[in-house]
Amino acid sequence: MATRARWPWLRDMRIARSLHRQLFIWLMLPQGVLWLAAALFTYNLAAGYANEAIDASLLQASRALARQIKPTASGLFIDFPRSAQEILESDPTDRVLYAVSSPPGQLLLGDAQLPHVKVESPRFNEPYFYDGTYREPIEGRRTAPGERVRVVALYLQFGLEGTPDGTMLVQVARSRANREELARRILVDTALPLSVLIALMTVVVWAGIRAGLRPLEALQDQVEGRSANALAPIELTAAPPEVRALAGAMNTLLAEVRRNVAAQKRFISDAAHQLRTPLAGLKSQTELALGEARDPALIERLRRVHESATRGSRLVVQLLTLARAEPESAQRQDRVAFDLRQLARETTAELVPRAMGADIDLGFDESEGDAPAFVVGIPLLLREALVNLLDNAIHYAGRGASTTVRVRAGEGTAALEVEDSGPGVPEAEREHVFERFVRGTHDGSGCGLGLAIVREIVERHGGTVTLGAAAGGGALFTVQLALAAEKH
Asked: 26 vs 14, 31, 33, 113, 214, CA distance in Å?
């Protein structure tokens, strides 16, 4: 617990490890251990077989040498011609060394530097095998660097009638160079196929891991490709039970979130519907009171009440529009193909009186020969989006400003533009104006939902809305929508 508290990044690193990498390591680690064990076992096995072969040849040579030594009345007769000695010592890399001593330790024939092992109570005519180091004498030095050899020692008993029995030790040694070279060759010949097999197994294991974890990638794609408002269940019918269990848990969570969001939307919609009637009545009563009042102070108070009622009514309308623009509501409404240019022209004409009252020059930029720009969507919602853009321009462009609406049709897209000659919006604040309840000024007008509704509606139609700077320094809103495949 102390380590986790002091070093939380260690726990984060453990959590952040790739599942592919962890599975690959845990599957390949035993294979690597098995490969090393197999190589070691193969080398030892090869060395053992090489020792058996060398030991057999050494035993045969020692017995052959022992047969050349015959006891006589005057001692031992050694029938070992010089030519035979040269044959045994001719190969410097795999030469055979020998020594005959009687009693053991008192050299009769051969090399005195041959390594000797002391055997207590040796058994006659039974071979003793051991490894040793042979140092060959060199002129000017006592011995040469050591050479590892394999030695067999054979104790023999000899004697004639009327003479005491004697003991003879016959030793034959052979260099281990050839034996080790043979073991290495066997190891290499075995390790190379094993390495190729391990490499093939590595590829198969990695492919298996990728295939086994592909349902997780499909789950990731489904989750990453969703928008924040997409709360539909995740579908993974062909996934393993473990992944289906994870998807089921996520679907349970999504269902709970969906119920909570639906409850909030119902509350907003119901509250907005309930508020429309009293707010409309309040506006009517304040208008009548303003017409009958004569006291300037009372008129000012009534005017403020009327402005608040108007703002509240506008807020209710926008809340209802926002509720209609939500994904669930938008999906239930019929989508049709319509001319975006005609919709923009008619909506602009409807708002001209409001713009004139605010001393705004509002117009629709239309050139002769402009073809219709057909898009597929919900005309009522897109009209509301354009109304909000124009209402925003009327409120914030300022008196004496001009606002122009135009529709441009390009390659597969239609662009609806609303440009004004007002003060514009600083670049650092352009993204924030589309957030809910964010207002451009604090003069008491507006409720901060207009541009949020615009973005919600445009996104529900698969388009985008951006805010840039107009050529004259004002604001330029651009709505991009996909053109319909066929004109209706």
From this structure: 15, 9, 11, 54, 19
Backbone angles phi, psi at 89, to 5 degrees: -105, 10
Residues in the chain: 488
Residue 113 gets which letter from DSSP? T
What does the block give as tokens for 127? 């071979």
In the chain the domains, ranked by start, together with CATH numbers, are 70-176 (no CATH), 241-330 (1.10.287.130), 333-482 (3.30.565.10)
Closest listed residue to residue 84, CA positions, set 63, 68, 107, 72: 68
- Which residues make beta-bridge pairs with 102? none
Beta-bridge partners for 466: 478
Dihedral sign of CA atoms 21, 22, 26, 29 in order: positive
Dist CA 362 CA 364 (whole Å)? 7
CA distance 189 to 108: 44
Q: Residue-wise pLDDT tens for the chain (488 aa)?
A: 444 444 444 444 444 456 777 777 877 888 888 878 887 887 788 777 777 888 888 888 888 888 888 877 666 777 766 655 655 555 555 678 888 888 887 888 888 888 888 788 888 889 999 888 887 765 544 445 677 888 999 998 877 555 566 888 899 988 777 777 777 787 777 778 878 888 888 888 888 877 777 777 777 777 776 766 667 777 767 667 777 777 788 888 888 888 887 777 777 666 666 666 777 777 788 888 888 888 888 888 888 887 777 777 776 766 666 666 565 554 555 688 999 999 999 999 999 998 998 899 999 988 756 788 899 988 888 988 898 899 888 888 888 899 999 998 888 899 999 999 988 888 888 888 888 766 655 454 556 677 888 888 888 888 999 998 888 788 999 999 999 876 54
- Pairwise CA distance, residues 139 & 347, whole Å: 117
Element at 327 (helix H, strand E): helix 327-332
Q: Report the distance separating Cα 325 and Cα 381, nearest Å.
A: 7
DSSP assignment letter at 17:
S
Q: How far apart are CA 453 and CA 315, in angstroms?
A: 12
DSSP state of 138: B
- Assess contact for 132 and 110: CB atoms under 8 A: no
Q: Which of 444, 447, 373, 445 has its CA nearest to residue 405?
A: 373
3-state secondary structure of 303: helix
